Amino acid sequence: MTSQPIRTAVAGFGLSGSVFHAPFIASNPAYELAVISTSDESRQAKAKDRYPQAAIVSTPEDILALADQLDLIVLGTPPATHFPLAKAALEAGLDVVVDKPFTVRSAEGEELIGLAAQLGRVLTVYQNRRWDGDSLTVRKLLDAGTLGTVTRFEVGMERWAPEIAKAWKASATAEDGGGVLFDLGTHVLDLCLQFFGPATVTYAEIQARRPQESVDDDVFLALRHQSGVVSHVTINLTSHLHGPRFRILGTEGGFVKFGADPQEPYVLGGGLPTDARYGVEPAENHGTLELNGQRIEVPTERGAYPEFYRILADKLDDGGTASALPLPVDPAGSVAVLKLIEQARSLA
Question: What is the rounded distance in angstroms from the CA atom of residue 101 to the CA atom of residue 97?
């Protein structure tokens, strides 16, 4: 880093702000965690205790009022707020990170991309599951050609969550960005596109199983990629028995991996991204590669959520939109995910 720290505000201090953003910003010397917004008094107290250097304000609008003292805002607020807040932040002269889902409608995402280009501001989306250890392991296998030509890709995120824990999720409609398809679905669809390129949804099952669920909590989608790969996507919050995280079949072999990435629970448990054990998965959760009838244990790559903010800092420090360095996540890819969700809803 050759310039001053990137003065950063985090809007929202629920799971998103407190686990996926603030710890990584605070632990990276390229950033100054300057402001955190939350209207919840207990979260305000927690934020003040953990980050005494940061100003604690009540609303994202309070952050925008301080725009001339900031460089970057991170939006960890409910999905329906992403478009208006991102638009206001760009117009206030800030670079913007939007947590997934980027927006609720693909047209809104395209509008934000156009506005950022017009204003010369950096805009990116927090698709952190690209840096899950198992996602990085899959990428390594694919890049090495270990499986040959992939014919089928199966990816799932399944949990047993019989109750809706957050008030906004209990009341949110699809128009508000509610439901598991906008939540976990944006992660797995992003991985499908990252690994195998553009796709079309060919089949969709979208169900609401929980009595209090008004949108969806059990989803299965089939995608056909232009590359010829078929992807099967499973997202379920009512699963007592979880299927594999990844199952991949190719002409030379297959790979299967169970279990959840350890980075989120590690931070929730009080660990820091700078700890030696951060992102390291225990051996019992390693995946299995089968080649020529032989099964081989495949150690999981170390999870790397800090990479998102490292790549972003490099981009901003190198001149932002004027820099040839890549964004951590191109928002156009997140718009493509939203278009897949729109296709799926039209089929279900």
Answer: 11
